[in-house]
Amino acid sequence: MAEKKDQKVYLNHHQKFTWQRKGEKLTGKKIFFIFLGLAFFFAIYFSPAWPDAVDPMGKHFPLSQQAKGALSLFMMAGIWWVFEVVPIGVTSIAIGVFQAIFAIRSAKDAFRDFMDPSVMFIFGSVVVVLAFTKTGLTKRLAYNMLQVVGERTNMIVLGALIVTAGLAHLMAHTAAAATVFPILLAINALYAEGDKPTKFGKALFIGMAYAAGAGSIVTFLSPARGPAAAGMFKEFTGRDIGFFELTKYMFLIG
Fold first, then answer.
1. Banded pLDDT at 239 (limits 50, 70, 90)
2. CB of 182 closer than 8 Å to CB of 143
3. Going by C-beta distance under 8 Å and a sequence separation of 6 or more, which residues neighbour residue 38?
4. Residue 73 forms part of a structural domain
5. What span, in angstroms and rounded, lies between the C-alpha atoms of 2 and 223?
6. Single pTM value for the model
7. Which pLDDT belongs to residue 42?
8. Domain annotation covers residue 5
9. Are residues 199 and 133 in the same domain?
10. In whole angstroms, what is the distance from residue 40 CA to residue 38 CA?
11. Cβ atoms 254, 217 nearer than 8 A
12. Comparing C-alpha atoms, which of 101, 121, 115, 171 is closest to residue 141?
């Protein structure tokens, strides 16, 4: 009966959240900032030629039309991102589209970065993480691992570190921390002394954050910076870093 009640509460909460998301509208404020970003773009892009920049040696550096286009696109994207007038992903794709339409860069160059292997790898890992989270596999794994450590506080802290670091091997460290956080809240409530901070609570949550960062550097599956760094390393040196090769060198550091 308790399980059915919990499921009912969850479904009601989920339906309410879904209704709120569907109820989001394009407000007047968002429309204003959409047109403000476009106004900055067109004002800079179609403005008369700007004076050349001159260095102390007297050398002139003219501002090309493509450079003006890049500056105007930066202003538009910055406004759209800061004020969140459209989803961040939409703004990101719009950057490539505007580059192609206004000849800031060729379409091939503008969209090549979107299909970079490191970007696609990050996208794939995010999809896997979403599947794990959606099915509840990560929480099940975390609960089972914490169940093994027992009720001793020092073992609970150790278990939290191992669980968090282990999850950070497979997903973004922020996602690992977010997965473990509600579990640790429930555990900490069992040992809390009212609103008074405890050494156990500090060790639990600071340790969780530290373990997430330490575990995230061991594999390519966790943070975006790993594949991005590997992509830049290949660009500079022409050498690939293998999946297990990274783990071989980073495991001890992690």
1. confident
2. no
3. 76
4. yes
5. 38
6. 0.48
7. 94
8. no
9. yes
10. 5
11. yes
12. 171
Residue 138, both tokens: 């990560």
Q: Do the beta carbons of residue 168 and residue 176 sit within 8 Å?
A: yes
β-pairing, 60-61 vs 53-54, is antiparallel
Q: Which helix (H) or strand (E) holds 186?
A: helix 173-191
| Angstrom distances, CA of residue 34 to CA of 38, 69, 181, 249 | 6, 18, 36, 47
| More confidently predicted of 238 and 36 | 36
Identity of residue 211: A
The number of residues in the chain equals: 254
Question: How far is Cα of residue 137 from the mean position of the Cα atoms in its chain?
Answer: 21
Confidence of residue 242 (pLDDT cuts 50, 70, 90): confident
Distance in angstroms (rounded) separating the CA atoms of residues 251 and 217: 8
- Work out the pLDDT band at 224, boundaries 50, 70, 90: low
What are the phi and psi torsion angles at 53 (to 5°)? -85, 135
CA proximity to 251, closest of 227, 206, 219:
219
Same domain, 45 and 98: yes
* Selection from 194, 210, 243, 211 nearest residue 145 by Cα: 211
Alpha helices in 102-136 (DSSP H): 107-112, 117-135
Residue 27 one-letter amino acid? T
- How many domains are there within the chain? 2
Identify the residue with better confidence: 119 or 7: 119
Last residue of a domain, one of 49, 82, 115: 115
Is residue 250 within 8 A of residue 218, CB to CB? The reply is yes
Residue 73 sits in which domain range?
Answer: 26-115
Of 91, 115, 139, which residue is a domain's last? 115
